[in-house]
Amino acid sequence: MYSHEECDTQHSVMQQEAGSQSKKQLPADMYYKYEELHSRPYITPDSEIPENLLHLSHSFGYDCGRRANLKLLDDRTLIFIAGNMLVLLDVNTKEQRYLRSCSGGGIGAITAHPGKEYFVVAEKGKQPNIIVYEYPSLGPYCILRGGTEREYSFVEFNHNGSILASVGSAPDYTLTLWDWRQEEVILSCKAISQEVYRVSFSPYNPGILTTSGFGHIKFWKMANTFTGPKLQGLIGHFGKTVPTDIEGYVELPDGKVLSGTDWGNLLLWDGNTIKVEICRNDGRTCHTGTVQPFSLEDGQLMTIGSDGVVRVWDFERINTADSNSDGSSFEMEPNNELVVGRNVCLSSVVRSSLPHSFVWFAQDSNGAIWKLDLSFTNTSPDPECLFLFHGGMIQGLDVSKNSHLMATTTLDCSVKVFDFLAKRELTTRRFNQGGTALCWAPPKVSQSGGLLVTGFENGVVRLLELYNPQRLQTITGQSPEGDAELRLRQPFKPHDAAVTAVAYERNGEILATGSADCTVFFFTVGENYNPIGFIHVPGPVQALEWSPHSHNDNNLLILCQSGHVVEVHSPDLATQKPTNTFHLSELPRRSFKFKSIKSRIKREEDFARNKAIKEKKKKAKEERLKDTKQLDVEQEEEKEEKEELPPIYIPDPPSPLCCGFYSQPHFWLSMGGFDSGFLYHCKFSENQDEDPEQRQDEPFSFLPVHNAEDDPICSITFSSNRQLLLCGMNSGSIRIYPLQPGDHSLTSMQAYWTLSVHDNQYGHLRHIRCSHDDLFVLTGGDDGNIFSFSLLPPEEMQQSLQRKRAKIPSPKITLGNETEDIEDPAAYSLEMAKQKLQNDQLQKEAELKVSEKQKNLSELQKKFKKVLNDNQNLPEHIRLKPEELQLDQRCYKQAERLKAQRVMEVRRQLAWEQERCSIALKKLQDWFRDSLGGKMVTVVAIQTSHRVSTYHLPEPAELSAQVRHRSTTREPVGDRDAALDCRKVRAETAKGSTKIDEEEVLCHPVIRTAKIKLGDRQEERLRKAAEKAEQARAKIEKKKQEWAQIYAEKPSEDYEDPKDVEAIREAKENIGDYIGVKHRRVNAEMKREELISLEENMHEKQSEVNRRIVALRDSKLRLVSWLRARAQRLQKVQQRLAVHLCRPPPILPNMLPEEVPEEKLRYSHSTLERYRSLREQRYRGWLDLEQEGAASLLEQLDKEMEEDKKEEEQRRDVEETPRLSVSSVTREEEETPVDEGSELSELEEELQKEEEIRLLHEQNTLLEEMETAVCQFDAELLLLCRQKLHLDWRLKLADLRLVMLFQEMLLLKQFQRREGGLHEKLNTCITEENSITSKLGECNEQLEMKRRDIAKLLEREKALTAAFQASLGENNKYEEFLTKVFKKKIKRVKKKEQTGNEEEEDSDGDSEEDDDWDDDYDSEEGGAAVNDSICPEGCEPELFENTLQLRERRLDLEELLTEEKKSTEALKKESDSFAKKEKLVKSSRAALEDGLDLINREKLQKISELDVVVPLRLHQVEYVLNGSVPSDLSEALVLDKSELDRLKGRIQQLQGEKLHQKDLHRQARQQHTKLIHDRRNMAATIQTLEQQCNELMRTKFGRLVDLEALQMLSGNRRLEELKQEKLLKETAYAKEIRQWDAKVEEARQAVMEVTTCNTEHLCSATSLNEQKKNLQLKLSTSQKKMGRQQFQDYRRRTDQEAIQNLQDLVIRQSQQAKALRREIHLLSCKGGHMLPPDQTRLPPLSPLRTPIGSINTGK
Q: Which residues does 852 contact at the CB level (< 8 Å), separation at least 6?
């Protein structure tokens, strides 16, 4: 399946800026300053440590394991990465220049510009940069930022150098194309989710790129789309080829790509698929190991491999290559090849920059840089090794105590010595094993300073002596080459595993070596190092350190990787006693097992920090609360702020121990893993009786190490004056702490200076040393790099040092031949050699004792035989009896008892060896004897010539049981049980559907108040109600579970019985037209099983016959022995008969050699002794040459055994002949007296005749029994012979069947590859279909549940509306208002805060919808908005509050309904998508099944074309033409008669089955109809019962209720409390009502008084009005002379004012009366009521005003 990716550029801002075509151009002459860019050391602030504390002097290493770590700038300058440095190496002068990384996190990749004018350094770290340097000025030209997050893994220019491609490492794996001159990103996307090793542009098409890496290759194309440029990537599909890591590849001109593999072949990619795999002839790989193609020119393709060979291939043949007939590979041979050298692993090559040059520089993963001439001419020079570095991690590093010399060793089996003053390598010595530890002997041991102690991975320790060979010229007169040589002085092997540490005792008298085998060995130091002994330690040794001179005792501190520390006293040579082993079991020791305290330290720090924060907050609160006095609030906040401290954590497994050193008088440890970040001060406990493995010791002090939480200290060393503490960190950085003099407790270890040197990821700095004069610091890391630093600037260094080279020790005058080395990898260690020597001595002593005992025993035997002979020669009367010659029985018993005890002891000692030997013998027997299935046994008849032989059966091959149980055909398994399984899985789902109780919807929220004490009866009633409710709840829950289980297991509407489905499928396959039959699919595995089954059946039949033949042979053996016994009895009988009465005895049969072939395998002690003597004679050359050539030892032994057997038979015949003669003579002598003597009496004659008759009868009986037994045996043998003949022809038919099956299997193997691919696709399709079907079923069920939930919510909403209508009652005048309040849509605050942009958008959308609802509702009403915050006048407040609560419930239901609808829509979409996927998958499955059926038909057609051999008799041939059998039977059909008869009988059976199936079908239809009718009746009955139940509920409760909830209602304590509270309040309120009644009565009296007063005022007003009228009449009369019009106007105005005053008065009085009536009403309803906030009390009644201004104002 193809994967197609389109990646937009990440820097979309560049493409979205106003569409401007002109971009800001960077000036071509712009440069950055390197001094401002490169990383600098970190120095603790406010410290006086200088920045230039260390100066890089030289780099002696090469990170040869890094990919593509060799580039060429010009014809003489190479660049490569060394840790945090970029090294520029001059090939001719070997001078080095350095560039530091700018990030300080290391360098990820480098490359050079095609024009060699620039080179690129891609860095590592957080958001690393790519820096383009100009060459040769080395000035930073460009900085490319933001290409990856952590590390660049590869960078490469395109063909003309205008574009730079970079690939990032984890976690982003970003592929970026840069316009590097403008520092801009062109395109960027994610390459893949795996490590990418390489990226490159096609030299033939600039828009094509290729990336490769871990298990993949990917092909990219830069395309211009309507949205802009994009990168389109196609992942390469390996198909049937095993996926491989691709290190290198070459783009071909026609677009193909040729890549390498892990196993050494080449892959030709066409598009994104493999066209062909290229290998050498006979299936050999192109290279041994990994292969990388690297160059294509002049029609030749060149490849390199990890086998160190460069090969040249014909490009035309590769380009036109195609796979062979079986589609496996294309074979070809290289045109040329160049073997670079032994132990060479080529990983990358770069070509010389000179034009038309054939010189290449190669990177060797084993530490070398090679110069290769690949012109392949006769004059081509041999490969030249330019530089040879260490390959791999630096395992050991040490410096000389007398000179500026440094020695190193690694697992590349080499030891190197460097002169770091002259910056050169002096000498190298190679061994057969890799080095693992190294120590330079102190001056007390070697005054010349030339002795090195090196440990190796096989446990060998070698003493190497360094000397200057030039000074040997004065002694030997020779002129050797080189300035230094290493001579092997003494090798010894103290360990069985790698040596990890070596250390000299402070006085130089003892050498200690530690190993990974958990032992420490001690040696005496001298001209020869002699072993003292060893001790066992609890773990692999990490380091050894002897106590300094400041300590009183001379002890050795042993640091183990497992966290154990052991201190042992120096071995005392004077007190050592010779023992049988080197184990020093009595050496005093103390143990320490580190226990983690880091989590406790962190816990205490957190506690202190939290405590300080709390104290600070507390003070601030106290100041803030001085005025408010809110102590309760403060206490609550303090409780909320209380946090639990983290638990104590102990790492499991324990953290590893990195390093340690002595203090005064204890020791310091640096731990890795979880416990890193501290230096732990430890001491040994006083109690040392505990097992070292079980003890747990904690440090008594610790020192935090800044910024080392995940960067532990790996190595520690001090300067000679102990004023500098140098630490090698796990991140590859150097850290230096200045110390105060004499500071053993490291209290002054505060400020530090640190610099990243080695690789920050894998360059762990495990070795750091100071030179003997403290002027240099040497480091070695796991990245293979070695650096030397000087503490002085180069100018001052040259002035302070008088010499420019280190002093090399002179050779000794007594320098002789080099000691023989230990080269055998299986050589014994010292302890094993000593134990073997002890065992050999013990064995030799035991053999001497045994030989001496045997000699004494033989002498005693001779004496005893002489005594026996003398005793035998004595007369009989004085001869001692045998019993008298025996010892006392008690001595025998005692001897037997002692012998039995010793035998038991020896058996116990030799039990393991005996078991081993018995198993070995059993294996030999199984291999040499039992594998043949036994010798062939031939049984011969006694009286006839018939014979029968067993089958020669080789042991059947061990047939793999996996073949039998393997899935032969990946037939699509039906998913008929999928629905049932899904129902069972979802059985519990039905129980957990979300629902809101109706009671919760309809009930008012209850506000809890203080508890009221209840009475005993109330408590008892509550308890009983709770028990009853709990029982009901349990019963209902059980019933729900049962119903849920039943509904979950309820089959779907389209469910079919699996048995019926299977029967229908079988019927479809086996019934109908033959052409339409779907044949069973067969494959090679099925045929192989059939073949194996037939072979096993044949083997079983043959084995059965063999068992019967062997049983017959055994019966013959018994018969022969029985016949011999009968013959002896017959002989005795005939001895007593007369000669003329004796019948001739039958010939006794003998067992032939072929009947008992196992006799050859039997042996006795004498046989073994004879074989031993023959072997010794042959070894000594005593046998003739002719005899040696004629027969082997075994043949000769067989001949001698046969000769001995013949001699024994002859001897037996000779012995039997005299016996017979004696018997005949005796019989004649017995008969002679009868003949010669007197006649017998009648009685004697009668007795003699009776005896004669008895003997004759016995003789005849014996002869008949013998003859009958022989005849019976011959008859059994004849019957078995005939049965074997019958089996033979059956086996011959089976052999023919085997041949046919084998041919069919070979035929099916041709289809296996095609069918296997289709089967894999079909299984994947079936799995996907089952998954989709299951998900679709789940989705549909969830959808159905959601629909049921929506229906329930709608019913609840209706019930809520009904409850609201019921609460209103009939003819409620506020019904319209309350309905508006109830149905009002308001904006509500979400109960649960949602996170994420989508949820915020949803909430915004909801709020907008709410606003729309408000607008819609207002618009529908068309009036003002309903004010639901004020209860209207006249409306009951309880009804208003109930309406608001019901509205809240309605809104809750609407929210739930909205959510359910949203989820339902989502489920619908998901169900539709699953349905579409299911349809697609089913169509794919059908297509695959059709393809398999097509292949199966093709296979069956091919199988039917095979010839089958069927032997027939003439009566079986019924194909006759013209009365004769034709010669050509090709048109005939062969049928099995029994099968034909079975088919004829099957016709009758099928007819009966057809009638039976019709009856079953009719019964099923009747039952189906009856079930449908019963279901309808049940549905109607259920509906009727539901209606009756609903009517009863409405009658009893007034509405529909949940009966289950009603049953589960327990006694409500709150209700009882409210009842009690109600009684109390009723009493209080009754008292208060009486008080208010009195007050009301008083108010009524006051009202009456006021009313009376008002009445009086009205009467006075009436009288005044009358008076007014009278006065007006009088006035009108008196003023008649005035104008009429003026008077009328004044009167009208006066009347209007009086009317207005009266109206105002009436209004005020009516308002006062209404207020009084309302107050009276409220007081009568148990209390007052607060007026709404917008209403104010009316003012008191003002006194009535007279119509005329101020006539009556109180005067």
A: none
Contacts of 1187 (CB under 8 A, 6+ apart): 1196
Q: What confidence tens digit (pLDDT) does each residue in 922-946 have? A: 887 777 655 545 568 888 998 888 8
Q: In what order do the strands lie in the sheet with 753-756?
A: 42-43, 753-756, 733-738, 724-729, 713-718
Q: Which residues contact 441 (CB under 8 A, 6 or more apart)?
A: 449, 451, 452, 453, 504, 508
User: CB count, 10 Å around CB of 1118?
Assistant: 11
Question: What one-character-per-residue DSSP string does 1257-1269 give?
Answer: HHHHHHHHHHHHH
What is the chain's length? 1755
On the question of a cis peptide bond just before residue 653, with omega within 30 degrees of 0, the verdict is yes
Asked if 180 and 173 count as a contact pair (C-beta separation under 8 A), the reply is no
Cis-peptide into 136, omega within 30 deg: yes
Torsion of Cα atoms, 545 then 549 then 551 then 556, to 10°: 20
Return the sign of the alpha-carbon dihedral for residues 488, 490, 496, 498. negative
User: How many CA atoms, within 13 angstroms, populate the side-chain half-sphere of residue 540?
Assistant: 13
Separation CA 1140–CA 1162 (nearest Å): 45
Q: What is the pLDDT of residues 1217-1245, one digit of tens each?
A: 444 444 444 444 444 444 444 577 888 88
Gap between the Cα atoms of 1169 and 1176, Å rounded: 11
Confidence check: pLDDT of 1403 > 50: no
Contact present, 725 and 718 (Cβ < 8 Å): yes
State how far the Cα of 1215 lies from the Cα of 1221, in Å rounded to an integer: 10
Closest C-alpha to 176, from 143, 213, 200, 148: 148
Going by C-alpha positions, the residue among 457, 544, 1605 that lies closest to residue 997 is 1605
The model's pTM is 0.56
The 10s digit of each residue's pLDDT in 389-427 is 999 999 999 999 989 999 999 999 999 999 999 999 999
**C-alpha dist (Å) from residue 899 to 851, 854, 890, 891, 911:** 19, 16, 14, 12, 17
Please check whether residue 696 is in contact with residue 682, taking contact to mean a CB–CB distance below 8 angstroms: no
Q: How many CA atoms lie within 13 A of 1364 on its CB side?
A: 27
Q: Average pLDDT, stretch 1096-1108?
A: 90
Residues 1200-1216 pLDDT 10s: 777 776 676 666 555 54
Q: What is the pLDDT of residue 1012?
A: 58
Alpha-carbon Rg for the chain in angstroms = 57
- Tokens found for residue 1234: 């009868």
CA 1571 to chain centre: 55
Is the separation of the CB atoms in 737 and 749 below 8 Å?
A: yes
Mean pLDDT of 1606-1617: 71
